Amino acid sequence: xxxxxxxxxxxxxxxxxxxxxxxxxxxxxxxxxxxxxxxxxxxxxxxxxxxxxxxxxxxxxxxxxxxxxxxxxxxxxxxxxxxxxxxxxxxxxxxxxxxxxxxxxxxxxxxxxxxxxxxxxxxxxxxxxxxxxxxxxxxxxxxxxxxxxxxxxxxxxxxxxxxxxxxxxxxxxxxxxxxxxxxxxxxxxxxxxxxxxxxxxxxxxxxxxxxxxxxxxxxxxxxxxxxxxxxxxxxxxxxxxxxxxxxxxxxxxxxxxxxxxxxxxxxxxxxxxxxxxxxxxxxxxxxxxxxxxxxxxxxxxxxxxxxxxxxxxxxxxxxxxxxxxxxxxxxxxxxxxxxxxxxxxxxxxxxxxxxxxxxxxxxxxxx
Length: 367
Ligand SMILES: NC(=O)C1=CN([C@@H]2O[C@H](COP(=O)(O)OP(=O)(O)OC[C@H]3O[C@@H](n4cnc5c(N)ncnc54)[C@H](OP(=O)(O)O)[C@@H]3O)[C@@H](O)[C@H]2O)C=CC1
Ligand SMILES: O=C1CO[C@H](CO)[C@@H](O)[C@@H]1O
What we know:
Structural class: alpha/beta
Protein name: 1,5-anhydro-D-fructose reductase
Number of domains: 2
CATH architecture of the largest domain: 2-Layer Sandwich
CATH topology of the largest domain: Dihydrodipicolinate Reductase, domain 2
Strand content: 25-35%
Number of strands: 17
Shape: globular
EC number: 1.1.1.292
Bound molecules: NADPH dihydro-nicotinamide-adenine-dinucleotide phosphate, 1,5-anhydro-D-fructose
Number of helices: 10
InterPro entries: Gfo/Idh/MocA-like_OxRdtase_N, GFO_IDH_MocA-like_dom, NAD(P)-bd_dom_sf
Strand order of the largest sheet: 16-13-12-11-7-10-9-8-17
GO molecular function, one term: nucleotide binding
Keywords: Oxidoreductase
């Protein structure tokens, strides 16, 4: 391995990997060294268009098979944004070849597959991390710290989140997200994954005792063998009495809201996954008061806006840049952080429970 720079290889020419390409350029401790595609022409075209906007700090080699890239010994880490249904064998092959693995979300088809993927990484002594960028945002880390150490809203009782975007006709017919073989969890995997993760972060990684879920609308892409959740609602119950619910959808307008409610106030975020384009990430802490005095019944508003200085995306302190920088730090220092595989496995276990509940009619499932 080169001493100070993590050499990244990408599997596939996924749309999201263009954002990660730029993030790696800005990370300061990595560079994209290779891209593999099922088509050599596509790999080279991808490298050319990305390089024209964001050049890497060295040459980037195109490979026409994922195997060929994984076999190289001048690659330290692979980024795997292949469709979820196809990802597992490539994660395991990469780990066996000694490559550290940044794996897109949702991690896998089942939690058993996640265990196999993580075991392969552990056996090979390489880092496993999923692609949830907000785990690396200064805002989320500050909220996590406050909720754990300071009880800014008292005891947390309820977490509600909503992640949706409106997928048009062409999306519904031909995007990987509506193909059961490629993205079997549909909106639950694509968007609900973040809602579940937010809950885990807010509870300091505590697992719920039971979950339930329901597909509200199913979608089926033109080439899909089956339906996927296009609109899904899920709930979680915790031993402390805390409850959490979420809604995710490919059919509602752009919304990324989260409310964390305590017995002394609530925290509201309006952009919890992809921060609004700005140089700071904000949230509000609310502790409204109902003032009653004889004929005067006033609900008085008390809302404090809080923020951290952090560019939403595409800058050196943005969450996706922090993600790849932190990953490369683990690679370069040979210090594996076990929290990341744990987070992935817990998220997938809750997702699996929601799907089992859905398949059984929406009843509560004990985890
Ligand atoms: N963390 C985040 O913020 C984000 C994460 N994601 C996740 O990343 C993953 C990829 O999403 P997205 O970028 O939209 O995906 P794309 O459809 O743009 O890309 C998927 C890539 O996978 C490769 N591939 C291999 N086999 C197949 C196949 N049978 N069908 C289709 N593609 C195949 C293709 O590369 P090639 O043909 O070149 O080999 C293709 O470019 C998803 O799981 C998604 O949830 C997506 C967006 C944001
Ligand atoms: O992970 C993701 C982040 O947000 C997108 C929507 O805006 C998703 O579709 C994507 O897969």
